[in-house]
Design goal:
The protein has about 160 residues and is mainly beta. It contains 3 helices and 11 strands. Helices cover about 10% and strands about 45% of the residues. A hairpin with a 2-residue loop joins strand 6 and strand 7.
């Protein structure tokens, strides 16, 4: 049986959970600047296929990444029911297009399990642990992997 990533059970953290397809994902609440309703993005020429485009966020240009497409899933057909998680990735604000935000969870470190050895390299790149709580398995996302170096340099 796999050991928890961090064995200090009394250290807690808050995570925002969200849906993409039928899967649940989460990020640290401290990485999220705001949650917005879907706003159509202006496409960028020659951008990677997972980049929806950019939106104007209070005078700043915010790149929007289709979270599903970035993970290699079917690209999202955005509607007014979708949400944009505005997150901080290194020094860059980025919007992640998701199906919807579920809740804020407070968890202890002992609920975070390592990625199984059978996971693909791509999974290991984007997911840094599995939160097992309330009968659910929620993938913890590595936000740094969402914004590769070439996109960071262009933004």
């Amino acid at each position: 049986m796999a050991e928890p990533i961090n064995s200090a059970p009394d250290s807690s953290r808050e995570l925002i959970t969200f849906l993409v397809g039928s899967q649940e994902f989460c990020v640290d609440v401290m990485s999220v600047r705001e949650i917005r309703v879907w706003t159509p993005a202006t496409p960028l020429a020659h951008a990677p296929s997972y980049v929806c485009g950019v939106i104007n966020l209070r005078g700043a240009v915010l790149p929007i990444i289709d979270f599903a497409a970035r993970l290699g899933m079917t690209p999202t057909q955005a509607t007014t029911r979708h949400a944009i998680l505005v997150v901080q990735i290194r020094e860059q604000a980025v919007g992640l297009l998701v199906e919807g935000v579920s809740e804020i969870l407070t968890i202890t470190s002992d609920l975070v399990q390592p990625i199984p050895d059978v996971a693909s390299r791509a999974t290991r790149e984007f997911v840094n642990g599995i939160v097992a709580t309330q009968g659910r398995m929620i993938s913890m996302i590595t936000l740094d992997a969402m914004l590769p170096e070439p996109l960071e340099a262009a933004a």
